[in-house]
């Protein structure tokens, strides 16, 4: 048996059904074995960076290990951003790269790169295998590390000759399984006692709570505490829940900001948030001011980073919530009739042709279960601030790492993981020109995804942010307008160009959403309204004075 065949048989046992990446000479040993393994589908992308985003999204929504592969040299360096993205989102992705033959290492071989140290800072584990008998062992070790503790990406570099080497009959190990991180019961008891004594409080949830929504809501209803979410966690709580107070952080809601800054709650319960810059509105000191800070997380490194935590609870978030609920009930708490929070936003006037109104009208016409994967740009601020959460798990917003073009590929990874869920990628022309050719990947795999491209012929977030900060904008931030719908047509992908609010109607959207493959909706719009991102600008403006 070839060493690389043993790797694929192990990955198949792990439940791997897709491998995202691009074939090349240094990894063709891997791809060649896939001829005889129809259970694993190679998803050949147009760029390795996009493959990394797809693999991360697939890991997120399939709740299992994902695999991404690239060649030695530039293929590997193109994957690094995807690995950093997966690291920030705690997603278990196995990144595989080819490498030059062991005998030519250090001899300036074609596409030679010592990838191991390159990946070390953006993965939990990175290694180059130089003995064929170690390849499977290193893959097993890497996957165990990827799914254990705080999940995250790992990297294994496989030299060409190592992949093709014969290793005899190999016993394929049993699939790696993640052990639960059980929280300390004394910490749970302390948290429950302190919270019960103070009675009033707020819950602030981050992306780490995305698989614990039911328990999070049960706890909020038991305490009768408002729930706020970080921008990254938008989508985990429906907008119509009586206790939902909105998004706090970058482009957040006024009601949530007022509660956090002016509210008299005595406790802040942080669930699954690392309390980073975008989540805390630039490390807002008011969050923990004169409040007991209780933080639930499976990552010990998030405690006491910027805010002093009074009661840290380390463990799997779902288990910590379950235990905390039981302890609070034992202290006599019970769910009572909830008083709905005040209305958070005034009704929208949808007549003006604006980014806000286009997004709201889109959502009005699309199914409530639609998942929106949001790219990076000025439209992202409007999504966070204005779009409603009509169903749980319907927003994917990677503002935390903020890689332009990631939203396009996230839609594809999400669709592979959940084929039945309606999927819409919202992107901009800047992101589209980075990774827009992945609409061809969606076409080649018959993925019915609607790609909405907000086309304003400029780098919108940079344009507005620079104007707000420096009161002027460089001409290079704008670019020649391009007809993106015509580009799509040239690729035989259905498209529609929107030039005004009257161009958008349910019939058009239904047609675009029900293709046997992707479709493009181009929104040609130069919106000079200021996006709701003022606090970000204030933060940047604090430098250079």
TrEMBL record:
The keyword Coiled coil does not apply. Its cofactor is thiamine diphosphate. CDD domains: TPP_enzymes, TPP_PYR_POX_like. Residues 375-523 form the Thiamine pyrophosphate enzyme TPP-binding domain. Keywords: Thiamine pyrophosphate. Gene3D superfamilies: 3.40.50.970, TPP-binding domain. Residues 188-321 form the Thiamine pyrophosphate enzyme central domain. It holds the Pfam family TPP_enzyme_M. Transmembrane segments: none annotated. Residues 1-115 form the Thiamine pyrophosphate enzyme N-terminal TPP-binding domain. PANTHER family: ACETOLACTATE SYNTHASE CATALYTIC SUBUNIT, MITOCHONDRIAL, THIAMINE PYROPHOSPHATE ENZYMES. Belongs to the TPP enzyme family. This is Thiamine pyrophosphate-binding protein. It comes from Planococcus shenhongbingii.
